[in-house]
């Protein structure tokens, strides 16, 4: 079985489907008007996630052996597409943060967090350790989408963290998805960053198929007085 040929199909289809997608057009228009926010980055991550999972659903079955996706296949066919999608999402989040900083009069560059390779490894390990790919396909695809939305969350956290340490009073907001569960609904709200900066705080957590948005807008930040 030629995994490289399947990978070429995945990458080719990804390029075609992400070329001038609607959410990118919306963001480009908003950036020109200095109106883009992290909500747009989250929407973009969701759209990229749907595209990538549709492609995985179409092509990964070609790589199965006795109904199972083995690690040799997954490390070729899952790793690179997820890395590319994460880089695309990160590039948009960085542009939005840079624009927000300029509009807020903050002379700081955007902080770009590294992709969470541990999470990619965990997703690959999970699907490879299941009895059959089909039996756990939907959970796997949900995790891929969560990974991309979580990368936007990492931008929010890293930039909020950096600007808080620089002396700004920072607030982050969690917005519940319209079809979210009671747990997510209870977490919706605006939080002083200092109260939720711990990475294990529930505000930063996502369950499978969670599309809540976590946003930060430095235009509402104020410099703290130095005592």
What does it look like?
The chain has 227 residues and is mainly α. The protein has one domain. Helix content is 60%, strand content 7%. The protein contains 9 helices and 5 strands. It has helices at residues 3-18, 22-32, 38-59, 71-77, 79-103, 117-128, 133-165, 182-187, 193-196; strands at residues 168-169, 171-175, 189-192, 213-216, 222-223. It has a 3-stranded antiparallel beta sheet. Helix 1 (3-18) runs antiparallel to helix 3, helix 3 runs antiparallel to helix 5 and helix 6 (117-128) runs antiparallel to helix 7 (133-165). The mean pLDDT is 93.
Descriptive tags:
about 230 residues; about 5% strand; three-stranded antiparallel beta sheet; two-stranded antiparallel sheet; mainly alpha
Write a brief caption for the model.
The protein has 227 residues and is mainly alpha-helical. Helices cover 60% and strands 7% of the residues. It starts with a helix and ends with a strand.
Helix-strand blueprint:
Layout: H1 3-18, H2 22-32, H3 38-59, H4 71-77, H5 79-103, H6 117-128, H7 133-165, E1 168-169, E2 171-175, H8 182-187, E3 189-192, H9 193-196, E4 213-216, E5 222-223
Antiparallel strand pairs: 1-5, 2-3, 2-4
Helix pairs in contact: 1-3, 2-3, 3-5, 3-7, 5-7, 6-7
């Amino acid at each position: 079985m030629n995994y490289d040929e399947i990978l070429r199909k995945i990458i080719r289809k990804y390029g075609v489907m992400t070329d001038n997608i609607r959410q990118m057009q919306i963001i480009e228009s908003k950036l020109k008007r200095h109106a883009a926010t992290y909500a747009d980055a989250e929407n973009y991550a969701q759209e990229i996630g749907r595209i990538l999972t549709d492609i995985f659903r179409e092509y990964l079955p070609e790589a199965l052996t006795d109904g199972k996706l083995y690690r040799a296949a997954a490390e070729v066919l899952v790793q690179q597409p997820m890395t590319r999608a994460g880089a695309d999402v990160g590039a948009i989040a960085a542009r939005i943060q840079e624009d927000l900083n300029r509009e807020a009069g903050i002379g700081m560059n955007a902080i770009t967090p590294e992709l969470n390779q541990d999470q990619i490894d965990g997703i690959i390990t999970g699907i490879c350790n299941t009895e059959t790919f089909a039996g756990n396909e939907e959970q796997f695809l949900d995790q891929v989408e969560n990974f991309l939305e979580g990368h936007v969350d990492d931008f929010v956290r890293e930039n909020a963290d950096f600007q808080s340490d620089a002396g700004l009073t920072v607030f982050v907001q969690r917005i519940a998805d319209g079809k979210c569960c009671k747990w997510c609904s209870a977490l919706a709200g605006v939080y002083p960053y200092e109260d939720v900066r711990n990475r294990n705080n529930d505000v930063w957590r996502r369950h499978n198929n969670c599309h809540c948005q976590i946003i930060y807008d430095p235009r509402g930040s104020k410099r703290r007085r130095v005592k």
